[in-house]
Design brief:
About 35% of the residues lie in helices and about 15% in strands. By secondary structure, the chain is α+β, with helices and mostly antiparallel strands. Strands 1, 2, 3, 8, 9, 10, 11, 12, 13, 14, 18, 19 and 20 form a 13-stranded antiparallel β-sheet that branches. β2 and β3 form a beta hairpin. α6 packs antiparallel against α10 and α14 crosses α18.
Length: about 600
């Protein structure tokens, strides 16, 4: 149900477009990262990028609320983090409104074109290899980001879309300095980017190499797109010239004569774009240690899987255990929750997701009963949540474990009135589908590879109009109806375990929020091997866990989280990654001395 806009959350912005543009011009000279932690009052923001965080905090400083700040920051990230997020993609926004203590969510997930079928990713009787499916028009879902921004501002913000986009427009025009992370992400895509003239022209030098670290990257085409959206609203994206160019790019990718890959045409139409909506959904909710934990409901699997794992873990007194013992329970709760995620999570418009059962204490007890002092052998079978969902037990279909890690980005904002936003947005894989829309400066997503596209029968199979299952887990924790924590992370299916590990680190194991974010990570997703960062594998806890039967594989880094904690007395702690993905940026409106 949509709620009427609440203009009482903040005064209308009193700065004009010219003032915001001047503010954004100053942002272009800011450092590319840090500081990762800030404490103070008046509002806070944390993102992976200094320009985005500064834009959000300046919005708060000029009277905007947390929703205004979130949209402003997200738009800047669309410029500076184009391989992770942008208007060619989608996301999920969780909002806590201080005025009435209500948590709601906006589902900006991409949808499959109406013409898509379960076998659309199949050729010669078998599914396409992942990269063949990804780097194509077939993988592009109808984007949801612009509609998310418009709906969020219309219903919960205090400013216009034009005002919110002004800082991002200036950054796109004036440019930002290329850092090592941007260079590395480009380098990983060069072999495909150089196939597509529009993509190569934007992201590669004339010699076909990435833009050098330290050079200034500008995107005037994206500035023009943002200006159009700011003037016309969401219809400036979903209708007219931008929409036509997007559809043409998806259906008929323009490929260089020297391309060394096959780029398959997609199915998107103008009707798909015109029909897109970003519905408001009830959040998932579980109680954990007397706190209320809210997350994103299906088609995301984030809220349900984090919630189920927390329900399992509440049966243990983790704070009284050794760290190794607590981490063993964390890994096993993740293992069993991921088995259930693989079997039951999909777009609720196409499959009867047993969400009540998955989040019930009774179902959690059946899964907890399977946990022993040693590691289970994966893949473990899914349980039967239907017995706790008001129905009979159903035949389930186990899903292959998902191990791909998308890029994505997460931001967190809070304002002086106590409204909070936890927002994860993405174009899926680093660089999305590899298709820049000519003349408009943004990458198309590859979200439709989040379907179980190798199956013709799985609940998460590809279907026309359907939203693919996601792992995004924007989360808000309340204490007696008031915000305590807001967290989230990028990282594909590792998002779920990253958010879960941060929560138990902070709520059970005594770490501060910055410590919980910086802590070495490990992720168990119902696979034979638990992936972990090298810093964890080197610990005594890892050695002890190996003795319990856990098998570890190394990965360079997991996630790039941000969060905000309410400290009491109007004080806020904003935290971002100190190192991962080049380090993040956290700021408050009025820092403590």
């Amino acid at each position: 149900m949509r709620r009427r806009p609440l203009r009482s959350l903040a005064v209308l912005l009193v700065v004009g477009v010219a003032a915001l543009a001047a503010q954004a011009g100053a942002l272009a000279d800011a450092p590319s990262q840090g500081p990762p932690t800030a404490i103070g009052t008046g509002g806070a923001a944390a993102t992976v990028d200094t320009l985005a965080t500064q834009a959000a905090v300046d919005t708060l400083r000029h009277g905007g609320n947390a929703v205004d700040a979130a949209v402003t920051a997200a738009a800047v990230l669309g410029v500076t983090e184009p391989f992770s997020a942008g208007i060619g993609g989608g996301g999920f926004m969780v909002i806590y409104r201080a005025s009435d203590r209500i948590v709601t969510t906006i589902d900006g997930r991409e949808t499959a074109p109406a013409a898509m079928h379960p076998d659309s990713f199949w050729e010669n009787g078998k599914p396409l290899p992942f990269n063949d499916a990804r780097y194509s028009g077939l993988s592009v879902g109808t984007p949801g980001t612009v509609e998310t921004w418009a709906d969020a501002l219309d219903h919960y913000g205090t400013t216009s879309l034009g005002h919110a986009l002004a800082p991002a427009i200036r950054v796109a025009r004036e440019g930002f300095v290329v850092d090592q992370t941007f260079f590395d992400q480009t380098q990983g895509n060069v072999d495909y980017f150089d196939d597509i003239p529009a993509t190569a022209a934007l992201f590669l030098d004339p010699d076909g190499t990435p833009r050098d670290v330290g050079t200034v990257f500008r995107n005037p085409d994206l500035a023009r797109t943002y200006s159009r959206i700011g003037q016309l609203g969401a219809k400036g994206f979903y209708r007219g010239a931008v929409a036509e160019a997007l559809v043409q790019t998806v259906r008929n990718p323009v490929v260089s004569p020297t391309a060394n890959h096959t780029w398959r045409p997609g199915l998107m139409t103008m009707r798909d774009l015109r029909a897109y909506t970003a519905p408001e959904r009830e959040p998932t909710h579980v109680s954990y240690r007397g706190l209320d934990v809210y997350g994103m409901a299906p088609p995301s699997s984030g809220g349900s899987t984090v919630g189920e794992a927390l329900n399992i873990l509440e049966g243990y007194e983790l704070s009284a255990m050794t760290r190794e013992e607590a981490l063993h329970r964390y890994l096993e709760a993740s293992r069993y929750s991921f088995a259930d995620r693989g079997a039951y999570l999909a777009d609720p418009g196409y499959f009867d997701v047993p969400l009540v059962g998955l989040l019930s204490d009774g179902f959690a007890a059946t899964r907890r009963a399977l946990i022993t002092g040693t590691a289970a052998t994966s893949p473990v079978a899914p349980g039967d949540p239907y017995r706790f969902d008001g129905g009979e037990g159903a035949t389930v279909q186990a899903s292959p474990s998902e191990t791909r890690a998308g890029t994505t980005t997460h931001l967190t904002t809070a304002d002086r009135w106590g409204t909070v936003v936890s927002y994860t947005l993405t174009i899926e894989s680093t660089g999305g589908a590899g298709l820049v829309v000519p003349g408009w400066g943004f990458l198309a997503n590859n979200e439709l590879t989040d379907f179980n596209f190798d199956s013709l029968t799985h609940p998460n199979r590809a279907d026309g109009g359907k939203r693919p299952r996601s792992s995004m887990s924007p989360t808000i924790v309340l204490d007696d109806g008031k915000p305590l924590l807001a967290v989230g992370s990028p990282g594909g299916s590792t998002i779920i375990t990253t958010v879960l590990q941060i929560l138990i680190n902070r709520l059970d194991l005594g770490l501060t929020l910055p410590e919980a974010i910086a802590d070495p990570r490990l992720t168990q997703r119902n696979t034979a091997t638990t992936l972990a960062e090298p810093a964890f594998i080197a610990t005594a806890e890892a050695t002890a866990l190996k003795a319990r039967g856990h098998v570890f594989g190394s990965t360079s880094e997991i996630g790039a989280a941000t969060g905000i904690e309410f400290l009491g007395g109007h004080r806020l702690l904003a935290a971002a990654e100190p190192v991962r993905r080049g380090g993040g940026s956290a700021m408050v409106v009025s820092p403590e001395p």
